[in-house]
Amino acid sequence: MELFDLTGHVSVVTGGNGGLGLGMARGLAKAGSSVAIWGRNEEKNRAAVDELNALGKGKAAAINCDVADEGQIEAAMAATLEHFGKVDCCFANAGIGGTGLAIPDMTEDAWQRVMTVNTEGTALTYKHVTRHMIERGPNEFGGGKLIATSSGQSIMGVNRSSNYAASKAAVNGLTRGAAFELARYNITANALLFGYYETDLTAQADPKFAEWMSKRIPLRRPGDHEGLEGLAVFFASRYSDYITGQCLPVDGGLCIS
After folding, report:
1. Interhelix angle for 225-236 vs 19-30, to 10°?
2. Residue 124: which region, alpha, beta or left (left: phi > 0; alpha: psi -120 to 50)?
3. Alpha helix locations (H) across the chain?
4. Ketoreductase domain spans which residues (predicted)?
5. Most buried in the list 26, 35, 81, 163, measured by CB within 10 Å?
6. Which is catalytic among the residues 126, 164, 196, 197?
């Protein structure tokens, strides 16, 4: 086997039709993994699948899924198994940004929507993926890999983003709990605390925010999407088997600035 060869491997990437998720999906496909993209936007789903299949290695398929709805998660998992027969790795990447509200202005709806998608969506995705992984048992790729997209905001403060920060801090706690509970099944769980990347989500922010971030990041630049490819392959592969329960900042040094 070549180093980091994922031929025969199957990955789920929620929210994998754009941004960070698509960047990670590219790396997985290039390494030979088949990829199930779970996303809400059918047009973006099709474009992502066409791009991944054009790489000529692992196969890709798109499944419509809103992770805020457990019924859709359950159906997406069933469709993935019908299409690919198994799931070796799950990148729980689907998420939404905060509402830009200060704490005194926070509403119940603004709080609940972010928590439902970012935290509950990740937890329920893991629920249905790990049921399969446990029932199937270990194979040539191990028992299973869970990788959550978290955020540097979960460990550092940012104005008018308390609901988003709280949702991602909860994902960190979920990661540690899952790692401890699922280790007996040879399933690992880790979270990637991403810093500032140029995506559709960050494009919605105040332009001054990007300027402020570029000055605060020690490496003085946003994250590069090409770098996401190797990161995803490492965490999907057997070479990360002894890493679990970790919340790793991927932020150009932002969290230490």
Report:
1. 60
2. alpha
3. 19-30, 42-53, 70-84, 108-115, 121-136, 162-182, 200-203, 207-216, 225-236
4. 9-190
5. 35
6. 164
User: From the centroid of its chain, how far is CA 200?
Assistant: 15
Q: What's the N-to-C CA distance of the chain in angstroms? A: 41
Which pairing describes strands 144-151 and 34-39: parallel, antiparallel, or unpaired?
Answer: unpaired
Q: Measured over all CA atoms, what is the biggest interatomic distance in the chain, rounded to whole angstroms?
A: 56
The domains of the chain, with CATH numbers, are 10-256 (3.40.50.720)
Residue found by looking up tokens 């399933």 in the block: 187
Mean pLDDT of the region 210-232: 90
**Strand order, beta sheet including 89-92:** 60-64, 34-39, 10-14, 89-92, 144-151, 187-194, 247-250
Confidence band for 251, pLDDT divided at 50, 70 and 90:
very high
Q: What residue type is assigned to position 213 of the chain?
A: M
239 counts as catalytic = no
Does pLDDT of 1 surpass 60? no
Q: At 235, which helix (H) or strand (E)?
A: helix 225-236
Give backbone dihedrals phi and psi of 31, rounded to 5 degrees, phi first: -85, -5
Categorize the per-residue pLDDT at 205 as very low, low, confident or very high, splitting at 50, 70 and 90: low
Are the C-beta atoms of 232 and 24 separated by less than 8 Å? Answer: yes
pTM: 0.95
**∠ Cα 202 50 89 (to 5°):** 70
Do 152 and 193 form a contact (C-beta atoms < 8 A)?
yes
Mean pLDDT rounded to a whole number for the chain = 94
Distance CA 188, CA 181 (A): 10
